[in-house]
Each structure stands twice: as structure tokens, then as C-alpha cells.
TrEMBL record:
Residue positions, PTM N6-(pyridoxal phosphate)lysine: K213
Cofactor field: pyridoxal 5'-phosphate
Name of the molecule in the record: Histidinol-phosphate aminotransferase
GO molecular function, one term: pyridoxal phosphate binding
Length: 353
């Protein structure tokens, strides 16, 4: 007789993160981390906190961080009460799926997008409908004018890297005044434009961001959302029904310090953008088609060679890129922008294929 927990396990289909292999000299271009590392001020702040305060619980409201984020966006009139923080933007998104999207109609998201969305739908029993991208792998706002229980998409989209102009985001917001529209801006700082500028005009908009990419703190696990106060209050209530202390003391002081070193942040983004443009040119010279990217990765396919074969051959040489075995994109590779040296190793290996 089968045990009931076997079927519980069978029915849970979790998100599968990119692998984190531990080999020396690996060129790791598979999980969109930032190769330039965090600001030294972040390390300093964490070291100080480590020495002083680990005995104590952290601030359950993460007040200092909400203030730092609101201050960063002060030109757009953002107040600390409009900021929600969580343990990585994955956790922020989990709270959004639990608290803001569950309605009597399916939520909408693109069919090629961040693969955590269907996982949350399944876990929180949120019905969904996926909308195909256009032939050029773009999100068409006209496709999001149908009854729904909420809308979510990354901008830039992942794994395509394609950015949707804010005017199109506005079109979606205006067509759906009674639905929550979530713009997942994990990659926005690499040349996109944030929809946080629209938050005070559209009470149905939630923008989520992360410190994992542009601020190079994937290991610290800090993400946040900015929205109308009422939606943020709903997220706070979900959080307090789940874990009152999502951000530990080290994450809190590190994240605050990251928002105090904007020079480091800007230099890091510019470094990634310059390398992305250089890599794109080289890939095109080598016979690859590269989708226009505003992220810290490129989505690319070779005109003749299969994506899976290229990924396998790179791997043999210690270079790891991401290949998705999914319809329509199985020929593509998603390649994180590395340092100049890492990108040069990649280019060399690809030119010898
Ligand atoms: N959204 C998108 C589109 C992503 O690609 C990622 C990174 N995997 C995340 C959110 C989550 O990032 P984090 O939890 O590190 O903030």
C-alpha cells in the first residue's frame, strides 16, 4: 500500500536552481551572478555586526533598510511604508503569490519566463494562463487585455533579456485597473528603466527588485518590493503569518551599506554593460544570433550548431552556461556576463568548437 506522503512528494515539483559546482578554475556563467563582487563597505558593515550583535534578534520590520531603499528612490516620492523586504526576491515573490494574486481568475504570465512562477502557482494553488512571446521573443502588451486574477512578468524578461519599454508597462496597467500587476525587475539595473517611477500613479503596480544581481549580493539573500502602501501592508501581513524575521542582522546591515555605496553599484553595472556589448559583438562574429539584452546575461543561439552540444562541449573545458531543454528555446544558451578574462575564455572556447 502506498504511503500518503509518497504522493505528497510526487506532487511537489519545485524550482530547480542552476547548479553551483565546486571545481577550481571554473568559468561559471550559468546563474547570473555579478562577477565584480559587492562594495567593500558591505563587507565592513557585516564584519562589524558579526562582532557586535549576533546574540540579538534582528529588527522584524527591517526599518533601516526600508528607509535606505525609500531614500534611494526619494526623487520618485517613495516612502518607507511603500517598501517590503524579504529573503531574496524569490521570497518577496512567494509572498506576492500567497497574498496578492490568488483570485477567482487565472493569473497571466509569458510562456517563456522565470520558471519559478509556475512553481509558486502550483504550491499556492493559483490558476494561471501563459501568453506566448512574439516571434521576436517580446512581450506584447495587447496580449494582456483579458480577464485575469493578476499579471506578472520580469522586465527585462528572463531568460531572453529583452526589455519592454515603460510605455508598454503603462498600457498593461491601464488595461487592468482591478488586477495587481507585478513587474519583476531582478535585472533592471543593466540598462533597463525601473517602473518604480510609476508606483505613485498606479495603485495596482508592484515592482520587485533584488540585491543579488547589480549589487552583487546573491549570497546575502535580500530582495524588495515597492508599491502602494495598502498592497505593502498586505505583504507585511503575509510575512507576519509566516516568519517575522526574514532578514537576519548581517543581511540587514549589508543591504543598507550596499545602498550607501552607489558609486560602486554604478561602476559595477557599467562594467557588466560594457562586457555585454563586447561579448555580443564577438558572438555575432562567431555565427551566433544574440537577442538584444538589457540584463547581465545574453540569450543566444548558433545558426548551425545545437545549443545542448555547445553547452556540453564548453562544460568539458570548465565553462558552465545555462541550457534549457524547453520547446522553442532548446537551441538557445543563456550566458551570464563574466569578467573580461572569463568572457575571453568563453570566446576562445567557442571559436575552437
Ligand atoms: N526574478 C528573476 C527573473 C530571476 O531570474 C531571479 C534569479 N533567479 C529572481 C527573481 C530571484 O532572485 P533572488 O531571489 O536572488 O533575489
Amino acid at each position: 500500500m502506498s504511503k500518503y506522503w509518497s504522493s505528497l512528494v510526487e506532487n511537489l515539483k519545485p524550482y530547480v536552481p542552476g547548479e553551483q559546482p565546486k571545481m577550481a578554475n571554473l568559468v561559471k556563467l550559468n546563474t547570473n551572478e555579478n562577477p565584480f563582487g559587492p562594495s567593500p563597505k558591505v563587507i565592513e558593515a557585516i564584519q562589524k555586526e558579526l562582532n557586535d550583535n549576533l546574540r540579538l534578534y534582528p529588527d522584524p520590520e527591517s526599518k533601516a533598510l526600508k528607509e535606505a531603499i525609500a531614500h534611494y528612490y526619494t526623487d520618485h516620492g517613495i516612502k518607507p511604508k511603500q517598501v517590503f523586504v524579504g529573503n531574496g526576491s524569490d521570497e518577496v515573490l512567494a509572498h506576492i503569490f500567497q497574498g496578492l494574486l490568488k483570485q477567482d481568475k487565472p493569473i497571466l504570465f509569458p510562456d517563456i519566463t522565470y520558471s519559478f512562477y509556475p512553481v509558486y502557482c502550483s504550491l499556492y494553488q493559483v490558476e494561471s494562463e501563459t501568453i506566448p512571446l512574439t516571434d521576436s521573443f517580446e512581450i506584447d502588451p495587447a496580449d494582456y487585455k483579458r480577464p485575469n486574477g493578476g499579471i506578472i512578468f520580469p522586465n527585462p524578461n528572463a531568460p531572453t533579456g529583452r526589455f519592454m519599454v515603460l510605455q508598454h508597462v503603462v498600457e498593461i496597467l491601464e488595461a487592468n485597473p482591478d488586477s495587481v500587476v507585478v513587474v519583476d525587475e531582478a535585472y533592471v539595473d543593466f540598462g533597463g528603466e525601473t517602473a518604480i517611477t510609476l508606483v505613485n500613479d498606479y495603485p495596482n503596480l508592484v515592482v520587485s527588485q533584488t540585491l543579488s544581481k547589480a549589487r552583487s549580493l546573491a549570497g546575502l539573500r535580500v530582495g524588495f518590493a515597492v508599491a502602494d502602501e495598502e498592497l505593502i501592508e498586505a505583504l507585511n501581513r503575509v510575512k507576519d503569518s509566516f516568519n517575522s524575521y526574514p532578514l537576519d542582522r548581517l543581511a540587514l546591515v549589508g543591504a543598507v551599506a550596499a545602498f550607501e555605496d552607489n558609486q560602486w553599484f554604478e561602476d559595477s553595472c557599467n562594467g557588466v554593460i560594457n562586457e555585454r556589448e563586447r561579448l555580443t559583438e564577438k558572438l555575432e562574429e562567431l555565427g551566433f544570433e544574440v537577442l538584444p539584452s538589457k540584463a547581465n546575461f545574453v540569450f543566444t543561439r548558433h545558426k548551425e550548431k545545437a545549443g545542448a552540444d555547445i553547452a556540453a562541449s564548453l562544460r568539458e573545458q570548465g565553462i558552465i552556461v545555462r541550457h534549457f531543454d524547453k520547446p522553442r528555446i532548446s537551441d538557445f544558451l543563456r550566458i551570464t556576463i563574466g569578467t573580461s578574462d572569463q568572457n575571453n575564455s568563453l570566446i576562445k572556447a567557442l571559436s575552437e568548437l
